[in-house]
Amino acid sequence: MLVLPIVNKNRILNVKVSLKGITKVREEASNDDFLESDIIVNGRSFINSHFCNSASFNPIVDFIRANLVSQSKNYSVVTKKASNGAGFDVYKVDIPPAKVSDVFDRLYEKAVLDISKETPGILKSKYLSFKNIGLADVFSDENVQRVRKIVANVYDQSYWTGMFEEEGLTEMFQILDLINILDFTIVSGSSISEESLLAIRDSFDKINSKDTKSLNNYYNMAIDNQDIYGKMSYVSMMVFGRPLNLIKSGNQKKTTQLVKSSERVDEKIA
Fold first, then answer.
1. Considering the chain, what is the average pLDDT of its residues?
2. SS3 of residue 172 by DSSP
3. Which of 76, 124, 205, 221 has its C-alpha lying 20 to 30 A from 25's C-alpha?
């Protein structure tokens, strides 16, 4: 499970990040059919391709795009073998969008890797740092202020797109558009107050525990993720008139789905 730790209202939330458009199509697939943790596009194996040993920043995404054909709608991702030796799970995943950003490709690839490194029946988590994948550079203070300057000083919004492009800010809006193919769900029961976490960290620090470093890294990552997410949401609000609003609890998603279902019924009746 790919987890984004993030501070929100003096609490640290753990948010599961995954790709939308994923369907499990096989369970306990055998070694004769698949290789462990492989990605298969139009019958071609990532593990058996030259992309597997590529020095590219995002070899998996490069492999996927290189092997797509015009009719392609999805590709397959194979998990690790189950701990009981039963076999692999296999998922069908919607094809990625056309490339617009190395940073977004890095985020997309982490979500694909999360599937391929899954062990059926065992929950393991890996933390996601927006800073480490490069979002801090894209949504830097300088870039955010440049967007703010254009929005504040140019009344006619029809000029904004051209001016953002001239200022080299287009990547920000491409990422804001594409990030909706990812699902951000708060892991129920996993949040903790900042005060409690810092108290635990200080307790470990007093006994000179190695856990202090891990807790510091986790907390700093949550702070950085909050800062970057806040800037992304601020840019979205300035330009599109709406906050990012990606992160939701399971209950919030159920409510949204009920509302959408109701809207669909109303449309049919009308």
1. 91
2. helix
3. 124
Count of alpha carbons within 13 angstroms of residue 44, beta-carbon side: 16
Q: Is 84 helix (H, G, I), strand (E, B) or coil?
A: coil
Length of the chain: 270
> What is the rounded radius of gyration, in angstroms, for the C-alpha atoms of the chain?
21
- 194-206 vs 211-240: helix crossing angle, rounded to 10: 150
Whose CA is closest to 134, among 187, 163, 99, 172? 172
Give the span between the Cα atoms of 66 and 74, in whole angstroms.
13
How do residues 33-67 score in pLDDT, each as one tens digit?
889 999 999 999 999 999 999 888 899 999 999 99
**In the prediction, which pLDDT does 265 show?**
35
Query: Is residue 193 within 8 Å of residue 11, measured between CB atoms?
Result: yes
Q: Region 177-183: what's the mean pLDDT?
A: 96
Residue 79 confidence (pLDDT): 96
Quick check: 93 and 77 in contact, CB under 8 A? yes
Angle, CA 250 vertex, CA 246 and CA 255 arms, to 5°: 85
Kindly write down the DSSP assignment for every residue of 175-190, as one continuous string. Answer: HHHHGGGEEEEE-TT-
Q: How many CB atoms lie within 10 A of CB 148?
A: 14
pLDDT surpassing 90 at residue 268: no
Is this structure's pTM higher than 0.85? yes
Alpha helical stretches, state H, the chain:
59-66, 102-116, 130-133, 135-138, 141-153, 160-166, 170-178, 194-206, 211-240, 250-269
Which residue from 37, 38, 56, 54 is spatially nearest to 46, judged by alpha carbons? 38
Return the pLDDT at 254: 67
CA distances from 264 to 181, 248, 259 (A): 22, 22, 9
